[in-house]
Design goal:
single chain, 108 residues, Elongation Factor Tu (Ef-tu), domain 3, AF2212/PG0164-like_sf, DUF1905, DUF1905 domain-containing protein
Length: 108
């Protein structure tokens, strides 16, 4: 794997909704677009953690944190959880376009 692979993109912030009709949750995500998702999958082939998760460092605006991205079963793209503290610090709401930089962690 190429250490410190970094991807920057803009994508809308969306809220998870229960596909079984149980309502909407508090979890918010940004979907990593196709090409970066494909690259991450190729780089991490055989090295991903539980549920196919990949550890990343993230920057949105002035806020940085570490988390994991997870493959979304329907699209094959990765999804990035955006916690409440980040949304509040950056003034983000569901539907907003978010400028994101994701860097794969060395220990991914």
């Amino acid at each position: 794997m190429s250490d410190h692979a970094t991807y920057s993109f803009t994508a809308p912030l969306w809220r998870w909704r229960d596909p079984k009709g149980g309502g909407e949750g508090a979890w918010h995500f940004v979907t990593v677009p196709g090409e970066p998702s494909d690259d991450i999958h190729d780089l991490m082939d055989g090295r991903a953690k539980g549920f196919g998760s990949v550890r990343v460092a993230v920057r949105v605006g002035a806020t940085s944190w570490e988390t994991s991205v997870f493959p979304e079963s329907g699209t094959g793209c990765y999804v990035l959880p955006v916690k409440k503290a980040v949304r509040a610090a950056e003034g983000l709401e569901e539907g907003d376009d978010v400028d994101v930089t994701v860097t794969l962690r060395d220990d991914a």
